[in-house]
């Protein structure tokens, strides 16, 4: 019985030594990963929308960056890109008439063509329409396609 206890004690010491070596290896890997993370710039500084990266992680800079991003996202929700609209030089009238015909209460605040005017009469530039408020653009697009048929 004493012999069995000694064997079990020896096995336990070996397992302990093995586990200690494994823990030391994991600590080294963790230190390397932390060093790599600390060497990288903060995520807010890498974002495309940030005009000036937050210095020292100041709370005001982080909030300002988040608000700016949210406002840009909201502005994009007000825009619709239309295709297959003939170019007659009266794009505002065409879009307003289309909105009236589809009973959309929101009216465009800006209507402009994207790209250079083509020499080919069969090519139609995209039409970017900006509305004053956020609205469901998918139903607008579906209704526009149905009205165009």
Question: How many structural domains are formed by the residues?
Answer: 2
Mean pLDDT: 77
The best one-word shape is: rod-shaped
Q: Class by helix and strand content?
A: mainly alpha
User: For the CA atoms, what is the radius of gyration?
Assistant: 32 Å
Q: Helix and strand string, N-terminal first?
A: HHHEHEEH
Q: How would you characterize the largest beta sheet?
A: 3 strands, antiparallel
Number of helices: 5
Number of distinct beta strands: 3
The percentage helix is: 55-70%
Q: Largest beta sheet: what is the strand line-up? A: 1-3-2
Strand portion, in percent? Answer: 5-15%
N/C terminus separation: 93 Å
| Low-confidence runs of at least 5 consecutive residues | 45-50
Provide structural commentary.
Keywords: Coiled coil. The protein is built from five helices and three strands; from the N terminus they run αααβαββα. It is mainly alpha-helical. The chain folds into two domains: about 1-45; about 80-149. A three-stranded antiparallel beta sheet has the order 1-3-2, with helices on one face. Residues about 45-50 have low confidence and may be disordered.
Structural topology:
Layout: H1 2-39, H2 43-46, H3 59-76, E1 79-82, H4 91-101, E2 108-113, E3 127-131, H5 137-148
Antiparallel strand pairs: 1-3, 2-3
List keywords for this structure.
single chain, 149 residues, mainly alpha, 3-stranded antiparallel β-sheet, 56% helix, 10% strand, rod-shaped
Task: Compose a concise summary of this entry.
Keywords: Coiled coil. The chain is mainly alpha-helical.
């Amino acid at each position: 019985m004493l012999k069995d206890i000694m064997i079990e004690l020896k096995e336990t010491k070996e397992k302990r030594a093995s586990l200690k070596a494994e823990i030391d290896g994991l600590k080294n890997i963790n230190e390397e990963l932390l060093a790599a993370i600390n060497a990288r710039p903060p995520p807010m500084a890498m974002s495309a929308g940030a005009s000036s990266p937050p210095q020292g992680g100041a709370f005001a800079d982080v909030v300002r960056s988040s608000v700016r991003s949210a406002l840009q996202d909201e502005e994009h929700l007000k825009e619709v890109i239309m295709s297959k609209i003939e170019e007659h030089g009266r794009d505002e009238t065409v879009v307003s008439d289309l909105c009236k015909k589809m009973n959309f209460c929101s009216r465009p605040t800006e209507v402009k063509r994207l790209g250079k005017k083509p020499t080919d009469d069969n090519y139609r530039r995209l039409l970017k329409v900006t509305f004053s408020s956020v609205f469901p653009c998918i139903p607008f697009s579906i209704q526009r396609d149905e009205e165009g048929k």
